[in-house]
Amino acid sequence: MSRILVTSMPFAGHVGPTAGLAAELIARGHEVVAYTGAKYVPRFTALGAQGRPFVRAQDFDDADLAATFPAVGNGKGLRSGRANVELILLGTAAGQAADIRAIVEESGAAGRPIELIAADQLALGSAFAAEALGLPWATVVVTALTLASRHLPPSGTRLLPATGPVGRLRDAALRSLVAGVSRRMLAPQVNRVRAEAGLPQRVNGSLDDAYSPQLVLAQGVPGLDYPRPDLPAHVHYVGRLAPAPQPGALLPAWWPELAAARAQGRPVVHVTQGTLDVDPDDLLRPTIAALTGRAPLVVATTGGAAESVLEPVPDNVRVARFLPHDQLLPLVDVVVTNGGWGGTLAAVQAGVPLVVAGATLDKPETGRRVAWSGVGVDLRTGSPSGARIGRAVAQVLTDPGFRRRAGELGAALTAAGGVRAAADLVERLLVARTSDGAA
């Protein structure tokens, strides 16, 4: 069996899918070394992986980014988004590359060489290290696929694909514009990191450099992504890389009320802001206000904050810090979310339609795909009014087309194979690279 390095940025939404893949590789007899922030190393070691924390890379707590990176602030707005890219993604990349080189050298010296890196696509140092070391490398896509395509508008513009000649001209012009801005603003930063990793400069250096040219494991299925006629052959949709179950999850005393509500024909609405953008005024409180006194039973999760942050709550609201999605979602009729990709995939796989209200990082892209695919409503803002949320929830509850489409794409996500399919592809790459080496 092989020794594989799995890397992940220390964000909960990144650790889930990479830990899911790690667990499957370990179950197949591979030896896994997991590299991530110190906060999440125990998540991997509990699976049987050998944990390695950030050392040269600046570590941080995803629950309080501003403590380490003050310029990120509250995570909202263009300035914060730019700081996220410059300070967190690119700013930690050189340190990551150095850490990974040290891990690989240590493993080789011990006679147990790393044979492949399976890397979170936003752990940018992994890509630079793999390229510099000449190691086979698979990208684990933790967001909606953002790989550039000549058939789509640039990722981040929040636009749906064009449907006519004028729109296609628009998208082409935007691709050219974004490429020019990237050359001026992003390429110099990318090239500084490449230089520190001992790599040659690239005129068009961009975040697409983080995608492996050998294997890309894209979470999702074609129906949840826009048509990509130019999708490279090494990019594979693998469904959802479900997080490895965490045993011992405690359920609240009110848990039986969910099944009872469903048995009575009463809808259950789950509202979540994930674990990164957790200001309750953005989505939790407006949703609660919108559904107060109405039929649905509302289940709100705070993403780690104390339940008291939402008190007092109406009689039809139940609150918890976290709840296990695999047990919760089969009891839910609608999910109201800020658009984390992992949580969105979990809802769709369970056949649950969504209302998305996201404005930061990759979340607007998630919202657009949810609306485009027909599995829910995109509110196109991260701080919607209670009235807009109430109307959207009512729309999803009364139009059976949303649930029908979620069921179709949920079945497709399951059929795509998840961690089993991803591990098969990783093993195939290992065999191919071994054969190439032998030849």
How would you sum up this structure, described in words?
Pfam families: EryCIII-like_C. It comes from Dactylosporangium cerinum. This is Glycosyltransferase. This protein has helices at 12-27, 41-45, 65-68, 77-89, 93-109, 124-133, 165-196, 256-263, 284-291, 325-328, 341-349, 363-373, 386-398, 400-415, 418-438; strands at 3-7, 31-36, 50-53, 116-120, 137-141, 215-218, 235-237, 268-272, 297-301, 317-320, 334-337, 354-356, 376-378. It is 43% helix and 13% strand. α5 crosses α6 and α11 packs across α14 (400-415). It has 439 residues and is α/β, with parallel strands linked by helices. It starts with a strand and ends with a helix. The protein is globular and about 65 Å long. The protein has 15 helices and 13 strands.
Q: Give the radius of gyration.
A: 22 Å
| Uncertain spans | none
Mean pLDDT: 91
Shape: globular
Residue share in helices? 40-55%
Instruction: Specify the biggest β-sheet.
Output: 7 strands, parallel
Number of helical stretches of at least 4 residues = 15
Overall number of strands: 13
Strand order of the largest sheet: 3-2-1-4-5-6-7
